Amino acid sequence: MDVSVLVWAVTIGLIILLLIIDLLTVSSKPHEVKFKEAIVWSIFYIGIAVAFGIWVLQRFGSQSGKEFFAAYLVEKALSVDNLFVFVIILAQFAVPSIYHQKVLLIGVMLALVLRGIFIAIGAVAISAFSFTFVIFGAILIWTGTGLLKHWDEDPEPGDNVIVRHLRRRISIADEFVGSRLFTRTSGRRVATPMFLVMIAIGSTDMLFALDSIPATFGVTSESFLVFTANAFALLGLRALYFLVKGLLDRLIYLSLGLAYILIFVGAKLVLGFLHEHFHSLPKISTGTGLGVIGTILVIATVASLIKSKFDSTAIAHAGRVKGNKEREE
Fold first, then answer.
1. Who has greater pLDDT, 122 or 269?
2. Closest CA to 220 of 102, 63, 67
3. Which residues contact 135 (CB under 8 A, 6 or more apart)?
4. 323, 314, 316: which is closest to 254 by C-alpha?
5. What is the number of alpha carbons within 13 Å of residue 54 lying toward its C-beta?
6. How far is CA 317 from CA 38, 56, 82, 140, 248, in A?
7. What is the greatest pairwise CA distance in the chain?
8. Which of 105, 156, 193, 169 is nearest to 183 (CA)?
9. Where are the domains of the chain?
């Protein structure tokens, strides 16, 4: 592909324009996003991605068009993994629902910047950080195992390891102060829980970039297609979250299914790293991973509907990584 500087500039300008539109419209006023609104925005962003893919096909040929759509589908599937972890983070920190969209929008912006940097650095730099796959995989397995034990409980902010770690080193307010990162208490400037949320979201974005960028480069070697596939998949991430959140409020066993998904994705990352060093070991393909995730979600949905039908008192819980000590004792 021969992509001119003008095409790069216009494309990046389009992405920035979409972010500005989001900031000035749906994210301008904190509110709880309803299921219907999430569907409309999801369709909008998917439509934008499809239209861009058709333009690529017409401008650069059928092969480039196919590569974009393939890369977009791969990145969309991987962004679902990213989304599940966001659900856990927001639940653990007990972020008020009216601020979820702002947190996620900032998360998307951070992800775009970070992934742009990783794409610019290239495959060589990514391979130098390949052991991060094992670290992140271990974190996902640990989180999923904890959630598996306490899927029918509600989380508390103090459960998160990052919260406990930072609380020992910096002063943090006990409650949210709107969407502010810092506030003043007794004349002192202290961080708010929202500050911890942003750190957790940002670190998650960076770790997932180490997984998604190599996966996308596996579909196409064109950096323009890698960047745009990532960008358009991430732009729809916020709306997709509220679709899942709506299901989380309704589906009793969704958090249980999420636990199995986290464990599976963690194992997938670890196996992927080991496969690169020991080729005789198996590697889970993106198609297989997507099929497993989809199957788990279908089973969780059907089981929840059956449970709801026969037990009207059953309610959904967000789940937590660690259980209530008083309950365990």
1. 269
2. 67
3. 207
4. 316
5. 6
6. 21, 43, 20, 20, 8
7. 65
8. 193
9. 5-328
Residue 190 carries which DSSP code? E
DSSP lists the bridge partners of residue 199 as none
Using DSSP, state whether 191 is helix, strand or coil: strand
Residues near 237 by beta carbon (within 8 Å), at least 6 away in sequence: 79, 82, 83, 104, 107, 108, 111
Q: Which residue has the tokens 């640990």?
A: 142
List, in sequence order, every beta strand (DSSP E) within the chain.
182-185, 188-191
* 119-123, 182-186, 298-302, range with the lowest pLDDT: 119-123
Question: Distance between CA atoms of 296 and 102, rounded to whole angstroms?
Answer: 29
Q: To 10 degrees, the CA torsion angle through 167, 113, 144, 217?
A: -150
- pLDDT band at 9, cuts 50/70/90? very high
Please give the structure tokens belonging to residue 277: 């060093």
144 contacts 154 by C-beta, under 8 angstroms: no
Per-residue CA distances from 3 to 118, 217, 229 (Å): 19, 17, 15
**Which DSSP string do the residues of 241-303 spell out, in sequence order?**
HHHHHHHHHH-TTHHHHHHHHHHHHHHHHHHHHHHHH-TTS----HHHHHHHHHHHHHHHHHH
Q: Which two tokens stand for residue 289?
A: 């991973």
Has this prediction a pTM greater than 0.70?
Answer: no
CA-based nearest residue to 211, from 151, 149, 271, 143: 271
User: How many residues comprise the chain?
Assistant: 329
Token pair belonging to 126: 């990514």
Q: What angle do CA 229, 230, 231 make, to 5 degrees?
A: 95
